[in-house]
Amino acid sequence: MKNNRRQFVKDAAKLSIAPFVLKPFNILPTGKLGGINNIRLATIGMGIQGHYDTKAARENEGIEFVGAADLYQGRLNHMKELEGKDFFTTRDYREILNRKDIDAVIIATTDHWHDKITIDSLKAGKHVYCEKPMVQDISEGAAVIDAWKASGKTMQVGSQRISGSDFEEARRLIAAGEIGEINFIEASYDRFSSIGAWNYSIPLDASANTVDWDNYLKDTAKIPFDAKRFFRWRNYKEYGTGVAGDLFVHLVTGVHYAVQSKGPERIYASGGLTYWKDGRNVPDVMVGVLDYPKTDKHAAFQLVMRVNFANAGTINNNTRIIGSEGQIEFQWNGLKITKRKLAKAPGMGGYDSLFTFEEKEQKAYENHYNSLYSEADKKAEPMTERIFKNPEDENEHVRHFGNFFENIRKGSQDTVEDPIFGFRAAAPVLACNKSYFEKTTLHWDPVKMKLI
Ligand SMILES: NC(=O)c1ccc[n+]([C@@H]2O[C@H](COP(=O)([O-])OP(=O)(O)OC[C@H]3O[C@@H](n4cnc5c(N)ncnc54)[C@H](O)[C@@H]3O)[C@@H](O)[C@H]2O)c1
User: Fold this and answer.
1) Which CATH number characterizes residue 190's domain?
2) Spatial separation of the C-alpha atoms in residues 31 and 37, rounded to whole Å
3) Does any domain span residue 367?
4) Which residue range forms the structural domain that includes residue 54?
5) 170 and 204 co-located in one domain
6) How far is the CA of 84 from the centre of ligand 1 (A)?
7) pTM score, two decimals?
8) Residues 93-133: tens digit of each pLDDT
9) pLDDT tier for residue 181 given thresholds of 50, 70 and 90
10) Total structural domains within the chain
11) How far is the centre of ligand 1, averaged over its atoms, from the C-alpha of 237 (Å)?
12) Same-domain status, 246 and 258
């Protein structure tokens, strides 16, 4: 919804001023820390988002960061540079799960590992914060939900933007009928840069010695070490989920939260690989069209999403929720709410058939029209515009973790983005991939969470 690049730049700027605070690894018994129940946290997948997540988590009170797992040795070594030489690191995430003193884990690995590590973590009695998309394939969703239910543990999926006040406000406005009945939502996420198109830097020491390549491959084809497939995994459908799983999922999550929807019933996507022909096997342009059925929370509407990684034109990424009486547009850290209502009278004259009638028929029609509608009926309510701004110092990412930790402390399994919510957002975007690759329209039961 909000521009991820801008958020990224904002976060990156913050990071460069205040990198990880050096906190030596310290074993404390689980208990009270400054009056707040201490939660011991470890991160599995210490790449880009693992760093951002860990930082956002630690900005909450009572969080002790005690370990990190990753498959690339350089990233583990860097954690020791940041946290101190005694900081616990491992290439094998199961060593994190075996540690009884760890309460919760962040799972920020490549998408293809999300389901397995989530299930293993829940079974090991850890609370789980798993990055989006919750799973890589629709077939994996039910097992994660079952494991979560059986575990009694708290789980949050990481589309953090819904924890901003703007989303809360949009949800409130829509529920109150402020923009009438929703009929259409459009959202785009275009980019125009190589890094934006996922071509991240590859370290010069990348090799089968510094990376646990066999483990990384999981159940995918056994192939020789390929640094691109490790450090630029989003470009390959074997490990990632393409633009749909990377970006559409944020848009769908936001829509489901704001409109209180369980999901679409029909899904179609088209696109192509137009520019970034660098060996990737996923499209760089994609449009998804999702039809949402009427429910007790909203009217039937259509959601159209677009990603174009080669947009050399104007990039104006926004989300507009359009209703019969106005629109909510997501802006930088806030909303623009526009309201207008049609006049009761339908109008007459101008670009209309009236002037083509015989003169006496024109006169008769005018008299008839004026007898039906008063002057007040002919006036539309003036259009109004209002801006909603998030509080200056608000950080949705920190708040998303705050919601996770608060529920852990309450002993509640419910979070703002629990696995049922997370799967209902992931499945339609994974269906976009299926639609694109199989050139077909998919039918989804959003209540039972099953393809039909
Ligand atoms: N919520 C957001 O806004 C947001 C933003 C960016 C990324 N993400 C998500 O975060 C996840 C990570 O993305 P990234 O950009 O940080 O990727 P990245 O390549 O920078 O980091 C991924 C890391 O996972 C590690 N990894 C993979 N399999 C592992 C395993 N079995 N055990 C331990 N470590 C393993 C890799 O070694 C790598 O260092 C993805 O799922 C992505 O979709 C979310």
Assistant:
1) 3.30.360.10
2) 6
3) no
4) 4-160+396-418
5) yes
6) 23
7) 0.92
8) 999 999 999 999 999 999 999 999 999 999 999 999 999 99
9) very high
10) 2
11) 14
12) yes
